[in-house]
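re: ur question from yesterday

yeah so i grabbed the chain u mentioned. its 427 aa long if i counted rite. heres the sequnce exactly as i have it in my notes:
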Amino acid sequence: MDEEKKQDDYEFLRETIKAKPIDKKKLAKQIGRLAGAGAVFGLSAALVFSLVAPNLVKKMQEKENASKVKFSQEKEPEDSSTKETQEEEKTQEEESQTVKTVVQEMTPQDYQKLYQDIFATVKEAEKSMVTVIGSQNDKDWFQTPYESQLSGLLVAESGQDYFVLTEYRIVENVDRIQVVFCDGTMTDGRFLKEDANTGFAILKVPKEGVSAKTREAIAIAPLGESYYIKQGEPILAIGSPMGYSDSVGYGIVTSTSNTVSRVDAEYNLLATDIPGSSQGSGVLLNLDGEIVGMIAQSFARDDTQNLVTGLFASQMKEMIEILSDENRDVIYMGVTGETITSEISEKKGIPVGVFVQQVELDSPAMQVGIQNGDVITELNGEKIETVKGYQQQLKSCKVGETVKVKAMRQGTEGYVEVSFDVALKAR
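ran it thru and got these structure tokens back, copy pasting raw so excuse formatting
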């Protein structure tokens, strides 16, 4: 009984599981659907590829050609028939790509309008121009006092005075200084200070001698940024560029890269193709009416004295501030130098720094033993590599201050370092 019961309990283990029979009709339908979808997808892909492939190939070829380094090569001789065919194809291609450019000639009215616009800029800038007259008590054969005149520029004002920038040569050894404003009114001026390097000076004109009407007519000069001026840009010269007052010249900037060294300083020159006089004076304007240069014919080379040359107005700003302040002095050490770049150093074997070309007689530099040929490499603890760097570092010092100067001096076995303690003075 027990065995029969056990067999009944595990009877289900002997059951066989059979797979469900395949529905052949349904399977055939599914295969048909897949085949149809594949055919549609294949046709679509072929169509898209046929449209996109040419452009892809073209772009790939252009990219490949652009990355190639091309060299000039001599052309192989061509037979006449091939050459004629290519010339015909080239002519047809040029004709299809020809773009018509209409050139409109300027009429006299256009020229008139152009120059009117230019001289409108000049008229606005002339509000800050003055004429400085220097006269002596001595008289000529006709009992007329000796007089000379140059252009000047209104550069600043205070509560009581106007400050005029002009060249020192016009006020040197004179008994009277007069300033003529743009409206023709005249008043007396007084010499304040000069800068021996540039030959410019500042005059002081009391406002009490200037009428209210004239004050409204004049303006303080807008000094522009000279470092943005580029070769080939239009430039205007006003003041006395031709040597006589109220003259105007216009042309282009021919150079901005030339520099000239002076005592403890270096200046950038603004060269132009504007005809001028070796005795000319005035300022240079950009087309926005900003003053970007001070005419300084003494800085021009001997063979360019007939062309207007100026100093960067940007480099004159600090000098103007110092000369206009009676409590400030021009710092003086007494060295005229040249920048020795790394390239020059490699070629000539001279250390990088400021090569001393000349030491001023009785200057602070001469008094401590700095010599021609020394190369200044450090000033007051700061590394010196250029004349401009030397100039800026010197300006940060004070009159009466003793600064340490390091230099390289050539000896029998090469360059050796030498040091100096220089007591700076005012110039």
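noticed a couple things. Confidence is low (pLDDT under 50) at residues 1-7, 10-19, 65-83. also The chain is about 30% helix and 35% strand.
anyway ttyl
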